[in-house]
Design goal:
93% helix; Putative transposase; mainly alpha; 27 residues
Amino acid sequence: MHIKFLETQIKEIEQLINDHIKNNKDL
């Protein structure tokens, strides 16, 4: 159960990082 939770958290964080990188490239 904890592993599943961590996997979900990691995916969310990766998405946030990807969005942040895209925003920086636009600048």
